[in-house]
Amino acid sequence: MRYGLIAALSASVAFTTISFARAADLEVTHWWTSGGEAAAVKTLAEQFNKAGGDKWVDGAIGGSGSGARPIIVSRILGGNPMGATQLNHGRQAEELVQAGLMTDLTELAEKEGWKDFIRPASLLESCTFEGKLYCVPLNIHSWDWMWTNPDVFKQAGVEAPKNWQEFVAAAPKLKEKGIIPLATGDGWQVSGMFNVLTASLGGKDLYLKVNKDKDSAALNGPEFKKVIQALADARSMADPGYVGRSWNEATNMVMTGKAGGQIMGDWAQGEFTTAGKVAGKDYDCLPGLGDHPVVESGGDAIYFPKNKDPEVTKAQLKLASMLVSKQTQVAFNLAKGSIPIRGDIDMATASSCMKKGIELLKNPDNIIPSGDQLRAPDTQGQIESLMGEFFSGPEMTVDDMQKRFAEIMESAH
Ligand code: GAL
To answer: How far apart are alpha carbons 92 and 352 in whole angstroms?
Structure first.
């Protein structure tokens, strides 16, 4: 007994000594694997490693967020947590936070005054549960953009479009030249595009009525029907090769003149930047499809699953603090094409497209919550499969789609 106690004591002394000398390997999972994304994540790893001690262990998961998120969540639920992980702002980690599986960052955030410089306030609200903070907003990524290649419109003898209607009108001319009007991929890309069409063509009020209030009259009404009709137009402008195509392959089609444009989040900008392309010359951007310029307050947040090792917890807090720092915000967002979560930094070298986004963000009337902030992951999944079905062929009519979409939203929690 006595011997056992001593042995236990000396073991704990030894552990304490070792734990002081030791730093942590912090595995960070994310789905940032395209050229622009990889360049952005490198800025984080380099800065974290430069601080000394702890080490960034890169846990990139190939494919898209839709594939990566279930892997991330099941590792945390299964007791094999990573040191930190990307998820989107909003409800994706809701259940993990409620189950007490995430490190509480409240003390750090209060000490560093995050509330005073992180904007818009909805970003921190998305990280908050019962008054405590459980994630770090890293960027604002807005879905509401169309990326075009002005050159292909010139080749087809039409003016480069300034809005969605002009884009649709130019499509036949592009087709005549063997150019695919709209580059896209399947699954979440179609569902994201639909959200953009809702906000950009229908406007902010309709977007909120449909996605936030789940308003039956709006969901079944004529204005929303026009948005679904626009998705049918998009369907007729895409090529059959869209199935299985990654978003960055689609961006590449625009960049290389195989396609006229792509509706995609502003992470597409990271691809243009990495390829050395210049906004306003080699490519153009239409926020809100040129109709209703809005920016979503969606984006990426980093969560820190609870870990039994105190060294890992220390490293988590160190990374959390670094992510909101001025230096990280500039370097990461310039590479990624996203908007920083703080306004007190110098973004003079940003592209003209990114500057448009930063300007839009200054007026709260232009900001809309993202789909991930408004809908739970299971609702998002149902919508994604409905969109996939609709996009795959003209068999599903606009009316069928409207009815089924309304049913999903009316029963969403
Ligand atoms: C989003 C994420 C972006 C970008 C994009 C495509 O979910 O917020 O940062 O990575 O996926 O991979």
So the answer is: 32
* 141 Cβ below 6 A of ligand 1: yes
pLDDT for the residue 128: 97
The pLDDT of residue 316 is 98
Residue among 64, 72, 191, 267 whose CB has most ligand 1 atoms within 8 A, to mutate: 267
Cα–Cα distance between 296 and 310 in angstroms, integer?
A: 36
- Residue pair 25/54 in contact by the 8 Å Cβ criterion: yes
Question: Is the CB of 139 inside a 6 Å radius of any atom of ligand 1?
Answer: no
Which residue type is seen at 152? V
Q: How far is the first Cα of the chain from the last one, in angstroms, to the nearest whole number? A: 56
* Closest C-alpha to ligand 1, atom 10: 32
Number of residues assigned to the chain: 413
Ranges in the chain, pLDDT < 50:
1-21
Q: What pLDDT, on a 0 to 100 scale, did the predictor assign at position 7?
A: 38
Domains of the chain: 11-141+298-365 (3.40.190.10), 145-296+369-410 (3.40.190.10)
How far apart CA 46 and CA 38 sit, in angstroms, is: 12
CA dihedral 146, 150, 151, 155 (to 10 degrees): 100
| Tokens found for residue 368 | 């809309």
Sign of the alpha-carbon dihedral angle for 268, 274, 279, 284:
negative
C-beta contacts of 206-209 below 8 A and 24+ residues apart: 207/294, 207/368, 208/368
C-alpha 31 – ligand 1 centre gap (Å) = 7
**Closest by alpha carbon to 403, among 388, 384, 390?**
390
Ligand 1, atom 11: closest residue by C-alpha: 65
Contacts of 376 by beta carbon, 8 Å cutoff, 6+ apart: 91, 94, 412, 413
Residues in Cβ contact with 213 at an 8 Å cutoff, skipping those fewer than 6 apart: none
pLDDT of residue 198: 98
Tell me the helix, strand and coil percentages in the chain, rounded to 5: 55, 15, 30
CA dist 73 and 231 (Å) reads 31
CA dihedral 68, 69, 72, 74 (to 10 degrees): -120
